[in-house]
Write a structure and sequence with these properties.
Structural class: mainly alpha
Distance between the termini: 31 Å
Number of domains: 2
Shape: elongated
CATH class of the largest domain: Mainly Alpha
CATH superfamily of the largest domain: Helix-hairpin-Helix base-excision DNA repair enzymes (C-terminal)
Number of helices: 12
Number of strands: 0
CATH architecture of the largest domain: Orthogonal Bundle
């Protein structure tokens, strides 16, 4: 099966399996998603969603957060891990939004990428979820599943995975597909346990399915 054919079938099946998949970070304004996605590095979205409630209660808008000292931000976001660096990035990013963009989040990929603490994954998330533009968010789930399923070949670098997926994923499908890969990666095609291949909706089109099932059979034998 060619990669484009496999990609089309993966998109179709995951749509049926996770019709309502969406971003698992809670936000109601674009700048809040910028903050949350920075905090989510090496931290669960669930924990981030809890921590930001206290952060926004104390600093309810871009100007307030931009005026806060990094140390004050760190006191709140420390449970997310990497507190000092995340606090510094958030502080610098909010200052740029305040001083250069009148408190608003810029609408182009390159402008987003130039913000402190914002990489390609974060910029794509904002472009897709906030502005409805074509986007491919290569988080750990996307990278792991794309390799296992056979959408890419032994690629671990996020940008290389993104560029490879752009060649086979219709632009309008990229953002939603990545959200569905997150759901599937958490529930079925897991990283820290043996994948639950026997109940995977992608089994028939997954390149790794025969090998995984062979390993399971060998363990039982």
């Amino acid at each position: 099966m060619r990669k484009k054919e496999r990609a089309a079938e993966v998109i179709r099946r995951l749509k049926e399996e996770y019709p309502d998949a969406d971003c698992t970070l809670d936000y109601d304004q674009a700048w809040k998603l910028l903050v949350s996605v920075r905090l989510a590095a090496q931290c669960t979205d669930e924990r981030v969603n809890v921590i930001v409630k206290d952060l926004y209660a104390k600093y309810p808008d871009v100007n307030a957060l931009a005026a806060a000292k990094p140390e004050e931000i760190e006191e709140i976001v420390r449970p997310c891990g990497l507190g000092p660096s995340k606090a510094r990035d958030i502080s610098k990013c909010m200052k740029v939004l305040r001083d250069r963009y009148d408190g608003k989040v810029p609408r182009t990929f390159d402008e987003l990428l130039a913000l402190p603490g914002v990489g390609r994954k974060s910029a794509n998330l904002i472009m897709g979820d906030v502005f409805g533009e074509p986007a491919i968010v290569t988080d750990t789930h996307c990278i792991r599943l794309s390799n296992r399923i056979g959408l890419v070949d032994d690629l671990k670098d996020p940008k290389k995975v993104e560029m490879a997926l752009w060649k086979i994923i219709p632009p309008e499908e990229g953002n939603s597909l990545c959200h569905r890969l997150v759901y599937h990666g958490r529930e079925v095609c897991t990283a820290r346990t043996t994948p639950y291949c026997e109940r995977c909706c992608l089994a028939e089109v997954c390149r790794s399915y025969p090998a995984f099932m062979k390993k399971k059979a060998a363990k039982k034998g």
